[in-house]
Amino acid sequence: MKKSAAVSSKTPKPESTKAALETPLAASSVLVATYSAAAQSDATTRSYDADIRHFRMNGGKIPATAKMVAEYLANFASTNAVATLQHRLIAIHRAHIDKHLPSPVMDHLVKRTMQGIRRTMGTKQRRVTALVKDDLLEMMVYVDQQLPLKAARDKALLLIGFAGAFRRSELVGLRYEDITRYDTGLELLLRRSKTDQEGIGRTVFIPHARGSRCPVKALLTWLDIAGIESGPLFRAINRHDQIVGEKALTPQSVALIVKSAVRVIKGDVAAQSVAGHSLRSGFVTEAATVGLQSYQIREQTGHTSDVTLARYIRPVAKRKIPSLL
Fold it and tell me: Using an 8 Å Cβ cutoff, are 137 and 213 in contact?
């Protein structure tokens, strides 16, 4: 009896064994969920959420049927760009996969519907108008007429955005701590970008320019007037010409600032053709016009190949073809 009792005392209780095994597994599942969520940028998550809201507002639901998704695509084929519909399809697909549901996007009906929309509507991407140096100088005249704080911010934002060939998300992501000053200009650290989601980072040098169009001078003037010594460089300003909080501007705010300046100097039609990306494409266009080599342009834009740059450079090259008459 004593022997069996000794043996039983050494035998672990099933409940304690189960608890010991489940505790690290539970912790692991939390970590897995955390890192899995981090694999997708906040901007992408917000974009997908907006697409799903649009889908629900127009009769959709999760889970959805293939017929429901196909009808949704057909209803918006004439008013939305093909790229927009494709993005919404990805959002619907992800919404199902994340819940371990079969995705209706993979159904033959949905694929054939999208194929028909592409063939009917075409897949040409919307190309925003590039804002080159002369456009920028015209915009500065309008910007300087605004209230002092807003004028200083918008001038710095537009000039830095152009000189650095920044995407709008990169521009609003810049922080005071990312600035390194040199006698010849400023070096700005890009912690993340559209093509660098893992945060490897890269630096962009902004050289001094002549006179009032100097982006370095404009940025330092804005920081001095605004009293910014840490955190985001570009922040919201209310109608009383006061900074609102310490949060950075949204990427959409960059587009609105660009459109507002263009609308005043060129009208509503011209404003509809520009966006935040017009500053970046304007730099590439201007650089190609003055004869910079593609490797020099890539150094500023962060492009890894000439394939994307070619979309900006080829139109410039075509305009340089001499007449044979």
Answer: yes
CA distances from 89 to 41, 93, 139, 156, 263 (A): 18, 6, 38, 38, 34
Is 194 known to be catalytic?
yes
Q: Is 100 a catalytic residue?
A: no
Catalytic residue among 153, 167, 235, 259: 167
Q: Which candidate in 303, 318, 319, 320 is catalytic?
A: 303
Bond prior to 63 in cis (omega within 30° of 0): yes
Give residues with Cβ within 8 angstroms of 120, minimum separation 6.
77
* pLDDT, tens only, 23-81: 554 555 667 666 666 666 666 788 889 999 999 999 999 999 999 999 999 999 988 88
Look up the pTM and report it. Answer: 0.68
Does 240 participate in catalysis according to the annotation? no
Residue ranges of domains in the chain, CATH in brackets = 42-121 (1.10.150.130), 133-319 (1.10.443.10)
> Catalytic: which of 127, 194, 247, 314?
194
Residue type at 228 in one-letter notation: I
> Is 167 tagged catalytic?
yes
